[in-house]
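Notes from the 1:1 (GR / supervisor)

We went over the backlog. Supervisor wanted to see one worked example end to end before approving the batch request, so GR pasted a single chain during the call. The sequence is below; no edits were made to it. Supervisor asked that the structure be written out right there so they could see what the output format looks like.
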Amino acid sequence: MFTDDIERTHELTELESIMMSRFANRFYLNREVDPAIVKGILNSARYAATGANVQPWRVHVTAGNAKERLINAISAAHEASPGDHSSEYRYLPETLPEPFASRLREFGTVFFGSLGIGREDVAARAANTARNCRFFDAPVALIFTIDRRLEKGSWLDLGMFIQNVMLAAKARGLDTCTQEFLSRYHAVIRANLPLGPEELVVCTMAMGYGDPDWAKRRPQMPKLPVEGFASFHGF
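Structure output shown during the call:
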């Protein structure tokens, strides 16, 4: 098969190994991250591709007391009235078509199964969701925003910037987890951080030193082989 040919003939570069080892880590050690490391990650990430050099990204980085105040505010809002909060954009359509719906269900089975949480255990699932509000106890929390006046093309650029952040962090021994979930609490975030009125909260990110025990036990999410998503013409 085509994938087998790749594995036989293609020796992974260091960058590719980092790309393939990265995953959304939701368990972190109680270990501070040197702010110089975070600045170094962002310094590298700013070289992300961006159409016409627009550079549409903004990121608010929090740690220490600033992060704790944000966590407390978001957690209080989530506990009191989660239904009153919603994102300023739609991440997925209301009805997810196939094959994407099946992949989403598979994710839930694999992820919650790895935590020992059953499909019908509503309380345990809710408790796990609430961990988002604490940024999974990671020492650094980042909030990514984009100017709401921009169009979809700039959102592509923002995604490439965020991917650069994740890869640069992994290269420095840090793990990350992006969180679309917390975009629904944009008003709470805005009340606790100096966001401009034009800034739309796209997602947040937990960053820190991942728990090595969890890294050994965490499941590998299934990915399609190359022939499952790519077609080649003229080769």
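Supervisor's comment: The chain is about 45% helix and 10% strand.
Batch request approved.
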